[in-house]
Write a structure and sequence with these properties.
The protein is built from 13 helices and 9 strands. The chain is an alpha/beta fold.
Length: about 350
């Protein structure tokens, strides 16, 4: 191999080695973080992670947006998750649930009320199991406590049966109660923030969910659905859509009225006849004459006349051209009278 090629190859390897060393010493490869927004399914269903976890364990589930006593009476599931505000409480419903739990049913009751409108029948139902609920009317700030589950801090309970499973938060307030009755049991809490998809990655929430849903039996969930608002949904929710619709119609009418002065076919006015070319030509000449600019015409005509005389008769000097023009007209050019001057130039162009 040629000596120069060997040296060049060695130099290239050295440069590449230095570049690799510099890149290794001064640069660092870091993974790029990309924020992925929640899917539409996750925004609609705040319990999506819980649903997928239960299905993964082989536990079948069914969800409803609301419930009636007749629907629950006809349900085949013996484990029901009931958001209390989505159910119409009556004395008949209280008697049915007490009997249903004693016969082996499991009711997970969510007290998602404020103090001002919690139904008396729901509170009476809890008292039949020795449970009293205290609901605050003001919402408290949501606090992430990774050592305790995410309870609803507006709702607290007191229970008479010491054998009941009573779970408390860091402040010692009773937030969740599991009370056995007959062959079944009642679980009651405030809004179950510990079951939401956004919070199940917390170990305390996951342990509590595993405890509550340990039995491999079908569940019926009666819970609200988050509605994903589109454009028109936001308009209906934020304001009066009728006013917006009327404003839009008025805007369209005014816009068309401004663009199209009269509705219907456009009538043609017809083309107005212009002035004869001779009259326009003379008016232009009079205008140029008033500013002593008639030489514009004379220069244009003379340029064409000189071109023709040079091409046809071989005349080039001004003396020869002026002599030839005198021969054609028999007199000097009329440079002061514009119509006469134009007539002379046309006569010359016609004769050469």
């Amino acid at each position: 191999m040629n000596k120069h090629k060997i040296i060049g190859f060695a130099v290239v390897l050295a440069v590449l080695g230095l570049l690799a060393f510099a890149a290794y010493s001064f640069f660092e490869i870091q993974p790029a973080t990309r924020t992925v927004p929640p899917s539409r399914e996750a925004r609609i269903n705040e319990y999506l992670a819980l649903d997928r976890w239960l299905l993964g364990k082989g536990i079948s589930l069914r969800t409803e947006d609301s419930a009636t006593l007749l629907m629950l009476y006809r349900a085949d599931e013996m484990q029901i998750f009931l958001q209390s505000s989505l159910f119409r409480w009556t004395e008949e419903a209280v008697e049915y649930f007490v009997r249903w739990i004693e016969q082996g049913g499991t009711l997970f009751l969510v007290m998602d009320y404020t103090q001002s409108w919690a139904p008396k029948e729901a509170l009476d139902f809890l008292e039949k199991f020795g449970i009293e609920a205290e609901i605050e009317s003001v919402r408290r700030a949501f606090i992430h406590d990774f050592e305790y589950p995410n309870y609803d801090r507006r709702v607290s309970f007191s229970v008479k049966d010491e054998a009941a499973l009573a779970l408390r938060d860091r402040s010692g307030q009773l937030r969740l109660v599991q009370q056995k009755a007959g062959r079944g049991k009642l679980i009651v809490s405030g809004s179950p923030y510990f079951l939401l998809s956004a919070n199940l990655d917390n170990a305390a929430n996951a342990r509590l969910a595993l405890t509550l849903f340990s039995e491999n039996e079908a569940w019926l969930f009666v819970r609200g659905v988050s509605r994903v608002q589109g454009l028109f949904g936001s308009l209906f929710r934020q304001g009066n859509f009728t006013v917006l619709l009327v404003s839009l119609v008025v805007l369209l009418v005014v816009g068309f009225w401004a663009v199209i002065p009269g509705f219907g076919l456009v009538r043609g006015d017809g083309e107005k006849p212009g002035k004869p070319i001779r009259e326009r030509f003379l008016a232009e000449g009079r205008f140029l004459k008033s500013y002593s600019a008639l030489n514009l015409y004379s220069e244009t005509y003379m340029k064409e006349i000189k071109r023709r005389l040079a091409h046809r008769e071989g005349l080039k000097t001004d003396e020869e051209i002026q002599k030839r023009l005198m021969e054609i007209l028999g007199r000097p050019l009329a440079n002061q009278n514009f119509p006469k001057m134009v007539s002379d130039y046309r006569t010359i162009l016609e004769r050469i």
